[in-house]
Design brief:
29% helix; globular; nine-stranded mixed beta sheet; two-stranded antiparallel sheet; 11 strands; Aminopeptidase; alpha+beta
Length: 279
């Protein structure tokens, strides 16, 4: 995977310039707070999640994982201060999670089979983009950032929870059934929702799920993951706080190497708008 000639293989700590945008990891507490404010704007003000504790007063989305994760971010040079952050991903590597006991995903899924994979793993979470920046460059920058991070840390497997908006599984029967019938992860990489939270994804019979309609019903983030070769776990989980229904996504980097490189390294903006949005 390592290729020192690639620009985006440079350490993300130094930053990668992409026109008016800079792609890098958070460097200090001010960066993290700016990321948290963006997340609050997208998840709570736009997507109507329910704030807890002091979140509403502080206008920040935060939890205990923020202190141990890497925060990938994109800033716009045309904005100043904390308002400059227009896109973000939260990243937690196995080598870091081991020191702190668990991954965020384990609140919803049994990931024992993923943890059995040798090599470095990274959990993706808290992805969001400012509503005014979802039409191309920022989305593509974040995807390139993931590719750079994978190379920098020799990542073997990426996984995490992705969300469909809403908490009524019956209203989400088509996308859930499509993921179940067409995009299930192989058994050895198939995380399963915890029994206490398990929601059946197989809500429509195979013959009732038109592949084209099913793919079209996916939210942009999940559609982008599917195009990159990601596959999905067994069972969904309703997250009442975030007003979402979550699915577990996994990408085996070594098995999907060529497709991964094409998706996460190119400068093609045609697919970029499909890649991410607040989720």
């Amino acid at each position: 995977m390592n290729d020192p000639q690639r620009q985006d293989a440079a350490p993300l700590e130094a930053g990668i310039r992409l026109g008016p945008f800079e792609l890098r990891l958070a460097r200090d507490e001010a960066d993290v707070r700016a990321v948290q404010r963006l997340r609050y704007s997208v998840f709570y003000e736009e997507m109507k999640a329910t704030p807890i504790g002091t979140m509403e007063a502080e206008k920040r989305d935060f939890d205990a994982f923020d202190d141990i994760c890497d925060h990938l971010l994109v800033t716009d040079s045309k904005r100043s201060g904390g308002d400059a952050v227009v896109g973000t991903y939260r990243l937690l590597r196995r080598s870091v999670a081991r020191q702190h006991g668990r991954f965020y995903t384990q609140d919803e899924y049994d990931i024992a089979n993923l943890l059995a994979v040798e090599g470095e793993l990274v959990e993706l979470g808290r992805s969001c983009v400012d509503m005014n920046y979802r039409a191309g460059a920022v989305v593509q920058a974040l995807l390139r950032g993931l590719g750079a991070y994978v190379i920098q840390h020799d990542i073997r497997l990426m996984f995490g929870c992705a969300s469909l908006h809403g908490t009524d599984p019956d209203e989400l029967a088509l996308p859930l059934s499509y993921l179940h019938h067409h995009l299930r992860a192989p058994e050895h990489l198939r995380a399963r929702a915890l029994e206490s939270r398990y929601i059946e994804m197989n809500r429509l019979p195979t013959e009732a799920v038109d592949a084209k309609a099913g793919a079209a019903s996916l939210p942009p983030l999940i559609k982008g993951y599917a195009r990159a070769g990601c596959r999905f776990g067994d069972g969904a989980v309703v997250d009442e706080q975030f007003n979402t229904t979550d699915v577990c996504v996994v990408l085996d980097i070594t098995a999907a190497d060529d497709k991964y490189r094409a998706r996460y390294s190119r400068d093609d903006e045609d697919d970029a708008a499909e890649g991410l949005e607040g989720a």
